[in-house]
Request: fold
Amino acid sequence: MKRILFLLLAGLSSCVTGETTDDFGNVTNRNRTVIPITIPKEELANSVHTSGPQALVDPGKIYVFNSYLYVVERYKGVHVIDNSNQFAPKNISFITIPGCVDIAVKENTLYADNAIDLVAIDISNPTAATVSARHPNVFPPLPLPEDVETILGHSPDPIRDVIIAWKDTTVK
Amino acid sequence: MKITNLCSLIILVAFMGCQNSADSGSPTDMSVGKGGSMARFTISGDHLYALTGNNIRIFDIANPVQPVDVNTKTIGSGVETIFAYKNKLFFGTTTGMLIYDNSSKTDPQFISSVFHFTACDPVVVEDTIAYVTIRTGTGCWRGWNQLLVVNIANISMPQTVATYDLVNPHGLGIDRGKLFVCDGAAGLKVFDATNPLNLIQKASYPNIHAFDVIPLNNLLVMTGDDGIYQYNYTNIDSVKFVSKIAVGL
Reply:
């Protein structure tokens, strides 16, 4: 496979080996390397939908609103947790939002970054949440994970494609 | 994440902040809820503020389901995170923080830039005090791990009035004088912050490893690497486990 370091990383990319440890001192990986996952830009407009609950895999940001918790599943979407019984919170639905890292809530509306688009999602019925408004091209390209050292792969065409995730890969 | 590699720090400085570790403290408006304070976008009252590179875009969300684009304003390069507190907007960069007056809601005005804290440093604000955790291993070249207590009564001249040594602090949260700090391997620390100049550590929970905390109405919601935890802190001498949503279930 042909691998091309991003031009935008020119001058920064020739990193030597190093160790990455987690916050509790354990060595997690060396030379964390990611590739961008992209989709054609026109697919963003139809990329948000609600389905049944899914297991947490890589939880990110949390937002607390009334008796609900909204938990970002990094780059993938938002878990809706019914927390009306704090002793037994219930995972009730999953809103797929490719490229999501950030959320906020006002009343019946969840705002999220759908990669570079800002979407407003009506969550009046959290098991049937739907996009009520979309503002395209609000945000810059998806930020990298915090501990990435190298980016591989072809540089995406910023006109045609949009980065929706950074996927870990290993150098061979 | 702790990184023992120089190049990675340079990449981090060049491309991102440390946006996953910040936390709460902002909204007193109960129609808005509570979440991270440093972000790609934030809500203050009837407006949503989105960072769009060098600019900020302001949306009117008086009708929440239909945001209306009302203004775009240039802030400057290198701005990575934003949070709102009362009539102020704080923009985090890798070298400092820009403070804007936001009384007008649609046309924020620059007040000052401060260098006590940066986009890498989680900040919470209560009244005239900002609590900031700084740690090593971020893209901001910090050589130490501390909790700073910063007086922002005079917003153009913030003053660090106390510092506390910590192990490897991440997210923090405050609710009515109760301060919670996620301190890496040292676990969760709970402080009585009734007098911000003299924080009293009430408890530490070495087994609670979390990255971020949101304290709201006596319920502490925490993100750890293996799930979401909830604790009751009605009595901060005895924080009680409530429930856990585990990863993978």
Summary: Chain A touches chain B through 63 residues (CB under 8 Å). Residues 62 and 149 of chain A are 26 Å apart (CA to CA). The two ends of chain A are 10 Å apart (CA to CA). Residues 1-20 of chain A have pLDDT under 50 and may be disordered.
